[in-house]
Amino acid sequence: MANAEQSRPGGAVGTGLVAARLGAVRAVLWLVAGVLALRQLAVVLNTPKGERLTDLETWVGPEGVLHVPGSLYDSTKFTGTPFSGLVLKPLSRMAEQALGWGWTFGTLLLVVALGLVAARALPQPVTRRSTLLAAPVAVTLLMLSLPVRNTLYLGQTSIIPVLLVLAGCFAVRGERTSGVLIGLAAALQPTVLLFVPLLWFTGRKQAAASTGVTFAGVTALTWAAMPHDSYTYWVHHLAGVGLGGRADDLANQSLHGALLRLGLTGPLEIVLFFALAAAVAVFGIRRAIHYARDGQLLLAVAITGCVVVAVSPTSWKHQLLWVLLAVVGRVGTKASGRYVWPVAVVLVMTLPAKMMVPNMGVLHPLRDNVVLLAALAAALAVPFLSRTSEYYRTPIPTEYAPKAETRFSWAPLLRRVATRPNLLLELLLIRVTYAAYQRTRLEATGSRAAAEEHASQILAAEKALFIDIEHWFNHAVVQVDWLRAFFDFYYTSFHFVVPLSVLGILYWRRPADYRWARTTIGFTTVLALFGFFFYPLAPPRLMPDLGIIDTIHGVQDFSKPDYGKLTELTNQYAAMPSLHFGWSLWCGLTIALVAPKVWMKVLGLMHPTFTVVAIVATGNHWILDAVGGAAVVGGGFALTYILTGPRTTAPLKGRGAGHDAAPPRGREQPQPTSTQQPAAVERR
């Protein structure tokens, strides 16, 4: 059938068009990967000397430990094995500048090689599109990941063991050669020896034996060449424990580091660490063996690497690439939830922990160990699908609402999902988006002079419009204690609570409206950032000659440009537009549109009314700031309408708008086509 279709002129043209588009997408992805590589190179080389390649400089620089007589570990600055010290010693004869350039370029080449090998190792069957696009996507993710960025910044060797293991498993022929590469990786990072049972129990006994022999031989030769260093490392420092900083540092994402951060010390901590490490190793390797036998060897390697991260006494940031490889596992029977696990892994491995988890005391154990928890989840808990599962290749399809119609025929309307979105994925994206917004807003600071000049412009415009009531209203409220307390409370308490409550209720009761409302507030927030960047504005309370009383923060010291500690927490010149009013107006309009009762609509519209009064009464915004907030809200609604069409008002088909409408198993499944065999046939 396929050959017959391709023999037709139309079929050949269609195939050629698809191939051309696929080639263009692939070229764009490689361009993105190249730009990221150049950016990483520029960041490293533009960093002042003494702040870049710090570990490499400590090792092979003029005063480095590889030059100093005595043990490599006298200062505990050298964190590698004696074998890695032996390999690095010849580099100490290179010129410093040439070494820096060569090391950075070499590391980037290793990252590209790692991405190519990982893409080649994807479990079969994979589509041609996946095969072509996997390599640039893998390289891009590696370039963005925290371990690679940390490795480039420090000048570390941690990419080499990962690449050696992947090359040994996927890129070379012959079990002996494979074992040699993995044995060399273990000589650089001893806990890589956990790959030996994976090899042994999956039928690659010769590779397992070769790994052990290579590791033992290299270690013995190094001991003969460097007996004092070898004794110090393997006996005195217990295979690297205590090297490279405090073990309870946040950068150590191992079980040992987590227990120390929880306050456990001494023999109790050691016994508990060994017990937990043994349990993680046993159960994690068993899972890895299962998936290797299932034909998902790359996932098995990733799980074993996650075990390596957890059980190592110290797993520093630059040694955590194993966790990123776990992105290849497939989780979930529904297409709508298939991306939760890979998105979570990518976010954990590319963003700082403080962007993933709010800075709340009760969540500090989660924030401080987020990478370790991801590694433990991959090793022990995440239910990756077997290749024999009927959902491995064809998950339950997503149900979409009827196609929207809009007066803008040119608009690229997005398909609207009819079912409730995955909660975990929504929480991840909302948290990361808000953290990015916070960071961007903080970076959008302008000079004090520019902010005050813009404030004078705003005040002049308000006087021309006869709406310059800020001073009068502020002082009128200050004279009434209960009124001042009420508006202070309203300003500080409802800014986040009400929008989150509206989103939560819509998610639970009106999922189709939730997607529309979430998109609208997202566009509103992005549009507001343009105002923060291009029009820094001093609020009334920060105008020195206006006499506005700051009812919340107290009297400001205008002799200090940063006005004390407040500037460290927020950009005080991000006043135009007012998102305090903008978000409240979004809440009011959303409630007015979706609420079934008139009193609910009225109550919703009262929120922006109280908010606009509060922002003026407390001296935090001008009247025109609220006008700007209303403008970005209008822009958010307009963009949502253009991209998704009008809001759906008719009830959705299926089990109801407030429920997941996934078809029951065994019914409404996608019918096999001529190129897609049923799952039962596929398993045979």
Structure explained in plain terms:
The chain is an all-alpha fold. The chain folds into 3 domains: 20-240, no CATH class; 244-397, no CATH class; 423-644. 63% of the residues lie in helices and 0% in strands. It contains 30 helices and no strands. The protein has helices at 2-7, 9-46, 54-60, 82-88, 96-120, 128-144, 146-154, 159-171, 175-188, 195-200, 205-225, 227-236, 255-261, 266-293, 297-311, 321-325, 340-350, 353-356, 364-368, 370-381, 423-443, 448-465, 470-478, 481-509, 511-534, 566-569, 579-594, 598-617, 623-644, 679-683. It is globular and about 90 Å long. The two termini are 23 Å apart. Residues 1-8, 563-569 and 651-684 have low confidence and may be disordered.
Topology:
Elements: H1 2-7, H2 9-46, H3 54-60, H4 82-88, H5 96-120, H6 128-144, H7 146-154, H8 159-171, H9 175-188, H10 195-200, H11 205-225, H12 227-236, H13 255-261, H14 266-293, H15 297-311, H16 321-325, H17 340-350, H18 353-356, H19 364-368, H20 370-381, H21 423-443, H22 448-465, H23 470-478, H24 481-509, H25 511-534, H26 566-569, H27 579-594, H28 598-617, H29 623-644, H30 679-683
Helix pairs in contact: 2-5, 2-6, 5-6, 5-8, 8-9, 9-11, 11-12, 13-14, 14-15, 15-20, 17-21, 21-25, 24-25, 24-27, 24-28, 25-27, 25-29, 27-28, 27-29
